[in-house]
Amino acid sequence: MFLGDTEIYWRLSNLYFWFFALLGGLLPYWSLYLQEQGFSYLQIATLMATIQLTKIVAPSLWGHLGDRAGQRVRLVRLGAITGSLFFAGVFLEPGFYGLLLVMLAFTFFWNAILPLYEVITLRSLGEHRDKYGKVRLWGSIGFIGAVAGVGLILGWVSIQWLPWLLVPVFIGIVVSVFLLPAEQGERKPPAPKGSLRAIVTHPAVVAFFLMNFLLQVSHGAYYTFFSIHLEQHGYGNLAIGLLWSLGVISEIGLFLVMHQLTRHFTVRQIVIGSLVLTMIRWVLIAELTDFLPVLLFAQLLHAASYGALHAVSVQYVQGFFGKHHHGQGQALYSGLTFGAGGALGAWLSGFLVEGFSTSVAFWGGAVAMAIAIVITARGLSAPPEPYSG
Predict the structure, then answer these.
(1) Is residue 300 within 8 Å of residue 14, measured between CB atoms?
(2) DSSP string covering 327-355
(3) In b/e form, how buried is each residue of 224-235, taking b as 16+ CB within 10 angstroms?
(4) Which of 86, 212, 215, 372 fits 105 for a cystine, CB–CB 3.0-4.6 Å?
């Protein structure tokens, strides 16, 4: 498959659109929905953390199955259908512990989709993998569309209707996974014994994972309490949605020019620069939320804190883990960073908000970034050239 094939391009882009549209409906508004349901800040943090928590186990399990069987498309379909069915438990209004079980079950299958699909996309692009950003940007477009659309509707109806507003997105996900091209089974010969261990214990790989772990810890306050933080400062649902959308718009712009940046700056320079900008972003949100121009600028820095660092990290995983361990490398990246780091960040921010304020939680994110900058400056090196197949 090649990007020049228009049909394949749209088939690859379609699932990114719907997958991140669901994220766009959840991240900005789910904490507000939970707050309306009467949950405490610590309960909100725990429920939001489940979105990240299952990434610790699910991607590794599903990635291992994908590497062994080579049937990633079938596994993506299974994750989409089963995850959607479990989410329906939300409509039973099961209370805190019931909702916790629903979220754990839903996200266990939902979080299986993206790591598998990243491998499918990169292998489908083949030698055109530098065009990954142009496929992935449709995920950002889906996120923006959902954030803006849901925010607009919530200007007319109660936040209690949020689960119903997500139903069309789940339908879009299920339909899109059946539009994926069939994947040939590709049982590969086993890799040399100990090679995966040698990779994950390499000093540069350790620094890479620590950097990304701290990056996601720093995002805990953002993904869990940014909407509540904005609401406390007088912003309405539509304004909150538009501010979330602005961050993703900047991410799209970054994906479109990322190949140009890599021609003028080293990978290490891009990473350190992005970490510094991320630290500045959290400080601005913590202290200057009431100043709209400053807040707009802080949201534009999402291009650095997510866009640039994720694009570089995909290349790191592909370069360091090679063909034999690509699926497991992608799963480790998702599990150790978005999973463990994101869950820990959500919980820590919950304690900081419960004990102090949302602003203090964002200062905690800035501290995590300061530590990440030191680790990166001391230990991170450029990844090997990624494989071409």
Answers:
(1) no
(2) HHHHHHHIIIIIIIIHHHHHHHHHHHHHH
(3) bbbbbbbbeeeb
(4) 86
